[in-house]
Amino acid sequence: MSFISLIIVFTLFWWLAFFSLLPLGLKKENNPLKGHDRGAPSNHDLSMKSLITTVIAFILSAFVYWIAENNWISLWT
User: Fold this and answer.
1) Domain range for 58
2) Does the chain have fewer CB atoms within 10 Å around its N or its C terminus?
3) For residues 1 and 68, what is the distance between their CA atoms, to the nearest angstrom?
4) Is residue 50 domain-resident?
5) Long-range contacts made by residues 66-72, C-beta under 8 angstroms, separation at least 24?
6) pLDDT at 57 over 90
7) What is the 3-class SS of the chain, one letter each residue?
8) Dihedral sign, CA of 51, 57, 63, 69?
9) How many Å is the Cα radius of gyration of the chain?
């Protein structure tokens, strides 16, 4: 597996995990200020979600790399 392929696989896993984690742990603002959206989260915690996403994407990418390098499946013929 080439380095570019590994970067692409990591990026795909990162975005998939990020969009899967976005709705977790969100709480709506009970009394929003005037002009604010009632559905907007009070604390989105994107830094923690980004860190968790990076760890998940790294583990999944390492697994795909291991499978490809051991020739269990052939990604390219």
Assistant:
1) 3-27+38-69
2) C
3) 7
4) yes
5) 68/1, 69/1
6) yes
7) CCHHHHHHHHHHHHHHHHHHHCCCCCCECCCCCCCCCCCCECCCCHHHHHHHHHHHHHHHHHHHHHHHHCCCCCCCC
8) negative
9) 18
Q: Helix/strand/coil (H, E, C) string of 42-63?
A: CCCCHHHHHHHHHHHHHHHHHH
Region for 35 from its dihedrals, namely left if φ exceeds 0, alpha if ψ lies in -120 to 50, beta otherwise: left
Could you give the number of structural domains in the chain? 1
In a domain, 74, yes or no: no
Confirm whether 75 is domain-assigned.
no
Query: Nearest to residue 33, comparing CAs of 42, 25, 24?
Result: 42
**Residue 16 in tokens:** 């998939």
Output the pLDDT for position 76: 61
Which amino acid belongs to residue 59? I
* Model confidence, pTM: 0.80
